[in-house]
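User: quick one, sequence for these tokens?
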């Protein structure tokens, strides 16, 4: 009900808000229309000056020019803007997205260095550029999570503000940005996929949904329109970022060491060099800004704490905002965070560098272009190493199923997924995952989105159960259906004291591939024609280094850590270890374990993932079949013990867990709610610790 009320209020607020800004006639307006922000930057320049250089030299000249009233700097920057033509800078879409912010800041900051004729030329030219963007059939409505969408939203607002009073169409562009795109399109996307603040296109592309709007939104706020107050997405993104970051510095098998990393997802070609936290400024700038916005709030404290802990890259402009933080500010945060829009669930044993963290990518968010087939994927980090992670990349090639052929890193095999005949979720047609109203024509789209049915946050454990049965199939008799899954569930139980992740997969094969449709030539995909019991189901997990298999265990050494997979079902597992490397893409590949099952219509996988310090004793795991249920007993000489009961069947019900001799806690039958206030994430009441404090 809280979530519904939030969405109703958000919709009412945006419906009633019109994009009326009180814009002064003078300049600067963008960012430095706020006198205190300008004085703060000038003071920093006095003690931390910079010399314009490199690819951003013209922007830096404009910045130094506005800070010091240096006419020479602004003259050079202004001449550059007058000569800049989009057709001389490669792809129009890329040029405007990548360079638009700096070019429009030059127009505003060095405005008094343009002649009236130059201003007239620039107004006509940039009005035309905005028209091209608005009328493009790519990255407009329906692509609200996309980096180009956010670049256009930013440019439209910046151009409207910067050219106001001399451009008859300035208000039109402001309205297009704030009323149409952000006020109408974005709330619809947010309700479906954005709740919780996860930026679905990942660390390389999705993060710009946080960084691109900062200067225009802050500027609009200076003139009476606080865009940030209209959506919870951005304050939620503070926590999606915080929980989506490794709790400590991380070492990769590719040679990177020493910095915190964002758990990789979707297109990510920079993970191996430190990713967005260490190699770019997007998240650092975002944290610096929100660490200063409402500085006394918990949101700001947590943003500053994240920045102090990670030392994420920042640009000079945002670093001028200042602000300090401490990891101690994490103390009031719950150990788990769930983003219901993207269906990303993060679970930790603690907030320090000695933690174990589980990162679950449960859904398939819409509005994205840089999308991978990673629904149901899991990643686990412990004490500076990934016990398991996805194979990150952007159009990189890795070994295909069973080591045959090549597949792109967007393929399910690059992630820790559950496969039916080497594939997971249904192929999305057209603009990809989106919510179709009940009764609407789904065409060739999948039958439905992943359905999180049960979710629970407790002091000693976190639990989630997801029904993928509809999401694994396209509509019946469609060209892109993959007709092998009848039932598909994934359940994850993270037991904090034992630092162990229990994974139960419920699978039922389908005989639909034997139907005439799939033998008649209309089916575009290439798969076998088999009975339901012969459908091959595969559990996939990755290791950064070569693992060794012994009976029902697979382990790999990772520096001072050991990563281990323990299989309880099937009872006699046969593991296939695939070295994913392909020539030219050696940095991307890992070692992939494929564990198959077939021969029964209904089949279960039951696996444990955990890790150890060098020389530490191994976890003992036993399974007892009770007929209608299983009992899993886990014990460790220093971490303690647990007893878990899971019910059998092709849907998830019941179950319980008892830890270290305590009373059995039932596994929740519904989805526990979570909200983000101006202070912190708060879990809906579920007993003594319902407010989220551990």
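Assistant:
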């Amino acid at each position: 009900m809280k979530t519904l009320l939030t969405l109703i209020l958000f919709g009412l607020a945006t419906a009633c808000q019109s994009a009326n800004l009180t814009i002064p006639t003078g300049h600067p307006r963008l960012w430095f229309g706020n006198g205190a922000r300008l004085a703060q930057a000038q003071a920093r320049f006095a003690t931390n000056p910079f010399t314009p250089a490199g690819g951003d030299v013209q922007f830096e000249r404009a910045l130094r020019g506005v800070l010091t009233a240096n006419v020479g700097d602004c003259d050079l920057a202004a001449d550059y803007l007058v000569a800049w033509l989009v057709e001389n800078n490669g792809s129009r879409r890329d040029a405007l997205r990548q360079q638009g912010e700096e070019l429009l800041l030059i127009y505003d900051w060095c405005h008094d260095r343009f002649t009236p004729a130059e201003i007239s030329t620039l107004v006509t030219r940039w009005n035309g550029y905005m028209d091209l963007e608005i009328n493009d059939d790519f990255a407009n409505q329906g692509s609200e999570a996309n980096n180009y969408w956010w670049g256009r939203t930013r440019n439209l607002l910046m151009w409207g503000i910067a050219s106001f009073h001399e451009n008859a169409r300035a208000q039109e562009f402001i309205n297009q940005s704030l009323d149409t795109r952000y006020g109408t399109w974005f709330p619809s996307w947010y309700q479906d996929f954005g709740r919780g603040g996860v930026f679905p296109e990942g660390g390389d592309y999705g993060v710009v949904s946080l960084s691109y709007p900062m200067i225009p939104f802050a500027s609009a706020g200076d003139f009476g329109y606080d865009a940030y107050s209209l959506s919870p997405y951005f304050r939620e993104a503070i926590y999606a970022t915080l929980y989506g970051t490794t709790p400590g510095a991380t070492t990769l098998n590719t040679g990177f060491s020493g910095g915190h990393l964002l758990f990789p997802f979707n297109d990510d070609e920079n993970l191996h060099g430190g990713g967005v936290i260490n190699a770019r400024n997007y998240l650092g700038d975002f944290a610096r800004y929100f660490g200063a916005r409402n500085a006394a709030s918990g949101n700001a404290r947590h943003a500053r704490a994240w920045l102090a802990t990670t030392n994420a890259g920042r640009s000079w402009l945002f670093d001028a905002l200042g602000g300090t933080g401490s990891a101690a500010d994490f103390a009031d945060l719950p150990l788990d965070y769930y983003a219901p829009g993207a269906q990303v669930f993060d679970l930790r044993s603690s907030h320090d560098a000695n933690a174990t963290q589980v990162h679950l990518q449960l859904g398939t968010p819409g509005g994205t272009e840089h999308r991978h087939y990673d629904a149901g994927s899991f990643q686990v980090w412990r004490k500076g190493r990934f016990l398991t992670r996805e194979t990150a990349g952007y159009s990189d090639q890795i070994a295909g199923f069973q080591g045959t052929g090549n597949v792109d890193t967007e393929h399910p095999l690059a992630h820790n997924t559950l496969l039916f005949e080497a594939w997971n979720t249904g192929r999305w047609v057209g603009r990809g995952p989106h919510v179709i109203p009940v009764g609407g024509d789904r065409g060739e789209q999948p039958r439905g989105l992943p359905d999180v049915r049960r979710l629970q946050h407790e002091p000693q454990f976190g639990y989630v159960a997801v029904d993928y049965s509809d999401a694994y199939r396209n509509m019946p008799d469609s060209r892109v259906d993959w007709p092998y899954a009848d039932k598909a569930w994934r359940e994850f139980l993270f037991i904090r004291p034992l630092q162990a992740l229990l994974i139960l997969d419920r699978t039922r094969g389908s005989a639909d591939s034997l139907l005439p449709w799939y033998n008649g030539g209309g089916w575009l995909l290439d798969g076998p024609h088999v009975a339901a019991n012969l459908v091959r189901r595969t559990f996939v997990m990755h290791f950064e280094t070569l693992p060794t298999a012994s009976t029902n265990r697979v382990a790999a050494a990772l520096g001072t850590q050991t990563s281990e997979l323990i299989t309880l079902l099937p009872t006699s597992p046969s593991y296939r270890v695939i070295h994913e490397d392909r020539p030219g893409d050696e940095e991307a590949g890992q070692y992939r374990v494929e564990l198959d099952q077939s021969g029964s219509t209904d089949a279960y996988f039951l696996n444990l993932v955990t890790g150890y310090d060098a020389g530490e004793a191994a976890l003992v795991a036993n399974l007892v079949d009770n007929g209608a249920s299983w009992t899993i007993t886990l014990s460790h000489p220093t971490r303690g013990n647990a007893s878990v009961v899971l019910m059998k069947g092709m849907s998830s019900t019941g179950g319980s867990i008892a830890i270290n001799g305590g009373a059995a806690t039932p596994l929740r039958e519904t989805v526990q709610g979570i909200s983000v206030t101006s202070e912190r994430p708060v879990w809906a009441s579920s007993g003594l610790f319902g407010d989220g404090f551990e």
